[in-house]
Design brief:
6-stranded mixed β-sheet, transcription, D-Maltodextrin-Binding Protein, domain 2, 14 strands, LysR family transcriptional regulator, LysR_HTH_N, Arc Repressor Mutant, subunit A, 13 helices, 4-stranded antiparallel β-sheet, about 20% strand, WH_DNA-bd_sf
Length: about 300
């Protein structure tokens, strides 16, 4: 069993076929098949089976994939941690953040980090809560920013965050009505994609209000905001994300009784000693006030 075989197996698992995995790895299909066969022979268990024109994981393959992802993530972490320990100012930190934090919090944090540590590197992935949790669980990132601390490791920072319902001022002016809960039930609600914590929070608010309105999945926060401004509907969104539009009068906050929702953002690290460069980023987040310091529980 080799690291190349493990990486090849994971590529097959994600791509669903030998040919697609070969394209991803920039090797021949025969090389992928040989590596996969060698891995299965060494483990003495079938990891994949045929399904139509592709492959799918067996039950054993599903279990092995989870371990393989964590092993490779830890090896990558070890490589970067060793380099960072030798020279923290030139090391690299791996960071994952939920979309709302990526759009409204990370720009200031990364700018402050670059000013303080100009030669340090950051590998960044911004996605929904589900993806951030997966990356963190696999040890593919050193630090994570999310809204559900139970999905993460040791919380080292917290940032207040409120979710509010907003509507376009133009729509309200044209209709000549005051926004009420029954009015909200007649509007189209614009949602993030599945796996987004904001989407789950929206569904919880609608259930609490007893509303079953029309919905439209838009995806990104930027797409949702633009759609609201164009008058396509209403949405639940971070107050930080619409501060400028509320101040200019383009958007109006709609009181519901169920909002605002307090959904703090958390900065989390893995248990144990953080890699040196990751620790620099955490300290920067405290110093510039992006996150309030939280002392890890002893």
């Amino acid at each position: 069993m080799t690291l190349t075989q493990m990486r090849t197996f994971l590529a097959v698992a994600e791509a669903g076929s030998v040919r697609a995995a070969a394209d991803r790895l920039v090797v021949t299909a025969s090389a992928v098949s040989a590596a996969l066969s060698a891995l299965q022979d060494s483990l003495r268990v079938e990891l994949v089976c045929r399904e139509g024109r592709g492959l799918r994981l067996t039950a054993a393959g599903e279990v092995y994939a989870g371990y393989a992802q964590r092993v490779l993530g830890l090896l990558d972490e070890a490589r970067l941690a060793a380099a960072g320990e030798a020279d923290p100012e030139r090391g690299t930190v791996r960071l994952a953040a939920v979309t709302s934090a990526g759009e409204h919090v990370l720009p200031a944090l990364l700018a402050g980090f670059r000013d303080r540590h100009p030669e340090a590197g950051v590998l960044l992935e911004v996605d929904n809560q589900q993806r951030v949790h997966t990356l963190f669980a696999r040890n593919e990132v050193d630090l994570a920013i999310g809204s559900r601390p139970e999905d993460l490791g040791v919380v080292v920072g917290v940032r207040p965050n409120e979710l509010i319902v907003v509507a376009p001022a133009k729509l309200l002016a044209e209709s000549g009505v005051s926004p009420t809960v029954p009015w909200l039930g007649q509007q189209t609600w614009l949602l993030r994609e599945r796996g987004s914590n904001t989407r789950a929070s929206t569904q919880a608010v609608l259930a609490e209000l007893g509303l079953t309105p029309r919905t439209m999945t838009v995806g990104s926060n930027g797409g949702v905001l633009k759609s609201v401004l164009l008058g396509l509907g209403v949405t639940l969104v971070s107050r930080d994300g619409v501060a400028a539009e509320l101040a200019s009068g383009e958007l109006v906050e709609v009181p519901t009784g169920a909002t605002p929702l307090r959904r703090p953002l958390f900065l989390a690290a893995h248990r144990g000693r953080s890699a040196a460069t990751a620790a620099l980023l955490v300290r920067c987040a405290w110093e510039i006030g992006t996150f309030q310091r939280v002392a890890p529980a002893s």
